[in-house]
Amino acid sequence: MTVVKIIEKDADFEPYIQQNQFVLAVFSAIWCSPCRALDPIVEKIAQDYKGRVSVCKIEVDVCPATTKKYGIRSVPTSIIFENGKKSATIDGLASREEIIECLGI
């Protein structure tokens, strides 16, 4: 059972980050091998920190406006939002420990 929210259109992203205190947003693509390698790491974080951190995944090919707005130039890129504001960016395939450290939890 997945607890990662899939953002299916650009209009859904901003309300999602505004409604949740801590958000880990992962920009990825189906065709990206490192993105697929990051999926189980992100899923485990979502499970372990459910209720404390909201996790979403944005397919760059499905949400081009959001991808452009946040300056995503490569995938995977993870952005951490705190109270709707960007607080950290992680470029590339990151370890669970690196992501947890950036979340500050």
From TrEMBL:
Gene3D superfamilies the record matches: Glutaredoxin (3.40.30.10)
One Gene Ontology cellular component: cytoplasm
Domain of life from the UniProt record: Eukaryota
Cystines in this chain: C32-C35
Family: Belongs to the thioredoxin family.
GO molecular function: protein-disulfide reductase activity
Pfam families: Thioredoxin
Protein name: Thioredoxin
Cross-referenced InterPro entries: Thioredoxin, Thioredoxin-like_sf, Thioredoxin_domain
Keywords for this protein: Disulfide bond, Electron transport, Redox-active center, Transport
Cited SUPFAM superfamilies: Thioredoxin-like
